[in-house]
Give the backbone structure.
Amino acid sequence: MNSKEIDLHKSLKKYFGFNQFKGLQEVVIRSIMSGENTFVVMPTGGGKSLCYQLPALMNEGTAIVVSPLIALMKNQVDAIRGISSEYGIAHVLNSSLNKGEIAQVKSDIESGVTKLLYVAPESLTKVEYLEFLRAQTISFVAIDEAHCISEWGHDFRPEYRNLRNIIKQISDVPIIGLTATATEKVQEDILKTLGMSDANTFKASFNRPNLFYDVRPKTKNVFTDIIRFIKQRDGKSGIIYCLSRKKVEEIAQVLQVNGIKAVPYHAGLDGKTRARHQDMFLMEDIDVVVATIAFGMGIDKPDVRFVIHHDIPKSLESYYQETGRAGRDDGEGYCLAYYAYKDIEKLEKFLAGKPVAEQEIGHALLQDVVGYCETSVSRRKYLLHYFGEEFDEISGLGAEMDDNTTNPKVKTEAKGELKLLLEIILLTKEKYKAKDIVSTTVGNPNAMLKSHKTDLQPFFARGKDKSDKYWMALIRQALVNGFISKEIEQYGVLKVTGQGKEFIETPKSFMMTEDHLYDDQDDAGIISDLKGSGAAADVVLMKMLKELQKTSAKKLGVPPYAVFTEPSLEDMSLKYPITLQELTNIFGVGEGKARKFGAPFVALIAKYVEEHDVLRPDDFVVKSTGENSGLKLFIIQNTDRKIPLEDIAKSKGLQFDDLIAELQRIVYSGTRLNINYHLEDILDEDQQEEIMDYFMESETDKIEDALEEFDGDYDLEELRLMRIRFISEVAN
């Protein structure tokens, strides 16, 4: 390992308290540190912001971070200030500042204190700011939410289009573009507009295996369903999105009346009220925020447990970004959307009156949303396919985490129909979008088809025995399965792929899933008995630490997780650190954070340890890696919650054997686990007692010996699980 590598890992630990980088973070940071233009496509929760924060802290000068949301800037600045003793290490420069505050920001930049300057794109157009920044040492410019540059993006901002020219006026420095959602078309547009087609491009997987996707029909009982859903998750944080301000207010009131701590959040509220409501959510004074889709919240809260769409958004990019606010700590995240076609019609009305080109884009984006809501195939596969990523719906991570796969629909043979569909796309010279292909197939002549004389062709209406809905569903499934593709340049035009042409030559069985049939079931079979925010090894201490976290956060005016994150508190409740040095061994706690916030926490733990005569783990000095520690905590939390072991394994992409190995590791390192709820499902009381007696009396805990002793009465899995129970109860 060379010195630069050591420096990078040392800096990661020093500033952020992590021992390992997550996903693509390290290669992205190396690209930035080498002074090269860099483009990062990384989903929400992937650790995108650390990619520019760490290089900014390490490099000489100030990094400019362009961000569209004042709320998000404020959160990030608070978080960076939390890891440093220098208040001026991070600043915002936007319309919310007065003259005195602006002077302070400039002074801190000139003196070299400020490493990160967050600006809105509009601020960069001001001559006074441009002239000031031109005279400073700028390390690089990071453009967050880079999809705002593209007219094809879900959140286009015209002021973003001119960023390249503005940056050139400031300094010839590297540019880093970052986005959490971008189709191939949008990625192309971003690189072209920023003039950085030579950029090192890094694209992380868009798969979020811990998120469960569920789409339900919107009925007149939708409010009842939402209230029932939230009450099953009492005390958990969630966001509800709506199309209109009126609906936001209405739902917030209904929730409040029903004893749910909720507040509204939309552009019609004054700035102070919005800020107060956001802070209440971050500080966990309330559980639910009801917000308009049109108004970006910029919430950077890791433990949002559910995101509900009362109304469907205008694009899958919006949907993906909004659902991505759930489960950013890799814990439980439930994404529930209510769908009615009339919502799509409302969104289509919003497009009326806009330029034709914009309407075309808008309608194409909406069609993909309709496809997602109406599909009967794996929603995860559909979503990932939209972002240009293939997904194995049988063994991929999170494969069973959606309503269509937990409740599979009937399949019918559609070999002949798929062949006909592919032939019609080719016979019409691959120039039509889905709706015109369907019209051609069922024999519904429109102006477009008549102008090309398609209605006079012998293949016209060859599929009239099936409905247009059937053919549209088949197109969606053919797209997801790679037989056809959508042209990037001519958005929405269908092309037959090489795989599709092979299918025409030698047709094989193609099982088409029938349209989604909705049942009145309880949460599509997903876990619905979770209560509270999850237990740690020492629930009493964890509760005390959470209280101290909130009190400290209120004193400092920052969100609780800006003091210490929940995984850090859980690690403390497992390891009982009683000095600041020991505190730096806790997951997510660096030297700066320990010095700044640690004193009251170690004092509380020391007092607790003394009063309760706690025997602290002998292996405390061994530093835990984020990954192992995170998995251990996840397993402890979820077994405490009595989550089925199969679900715990699936949510982390583990084979069941691998989960058993992890459970063994945990109990053999001295931590108790309660898996009795699982054992009760597979073995009766007498059987369990018999195996427990065996392990109590046996001279060895070897499974081979136990298998031999019971001579086929119990299988390998049952004995391994019972040994875990035995070690946990007797040895720990």
Observations:
- The longest strand covers residues 211-217.
- The CA atoms of residues 415 and 510 lie 5 Å apart.
- Residues 591-611 form the longest helix (21 residues).
- The radius of gyration is 28 Å.
